[in-house]
Amino acid sequence: MSKIETIEQLRTLYPPAKGLAVDKQLTRLDPHCRRFISLSPFAVLATKGQDGLVDISPRGGDPGFILIEDDETLLLPDWPGNNRLDNLENILADPAISLIFLIPGVDETLRVHGLAEINTDEALIQQFAIGPKLPKTVLRISVKEAYLHCAKALMRSRLWDADAQIERGDLPSIAKMIQDQAGLGGPAESQPDMVARYRKLLY
């Protein structure tokens, strides 16, 4: 057997999940989930496109940047980006989403699955005001599943270990990489210039 095509084949290699691996799954946020989200400055958002492929994108802000409306509802602001709108367009066709929350220095993660709607309600948007700046939209997410995920992946990757980090100069600037991918010539924006420009446009 090489290519696995059925659940039965798959389960000959992996025994059924049981015990805490199953029992930990919740249908709403409990105090531990709420605390985890309140300390998280970074999450990964996944949606399903009409082409059947999954889009994944990072979301970040100050700890607790995703607000908890109640035990079954999260609010995620959409700040300026590249205007591809992959995830937002996906949600209009299929509201199912997944989030993974990370906290720097913590190897465990929190997974949340639910249904999202794109909202322009003024009261929701005003909750995310940073000075005079406001997000254009807010995702209102109805939580359907939530559970803590074990530390193994982050332990293997040593994600938070300072001595596992590489120098940024080990890669070309992102501008150079994208320029090469797009087949463009001419000088590319340096990484420090890009960072300086982004800092002016974060919100």
Automatic annotation (TrEMBL):
Domain Pyridoxamine 5'-phosphate oxidase N-terminal: 29-150
Gene3D superfamilies, per the entry: Electron Transport, Fmn-binding Protein, Chain A
Superkingdom to which the source organism belongs: Bacteria
Pfam families: PNPOx_N
InterPro entries for the chain: Pyridox_Oxase_FMN-dep, Pyridox_Oxase_N, Split_barrel_FMN-bd
PANTHER family hit by this protein: FAD-BINDING, PUTATIVE (AFU_ORTHOLOGUE AFUA_6G07600)-RELATED (PTHR42815:SF2)
Protein name: Pyridoxamine 5'-phosphate oxidase family protein
Species classification: Bacteria, Pseudomonadati, Pseudomonadota, Alphaproteobacteria, Rhodospirillales
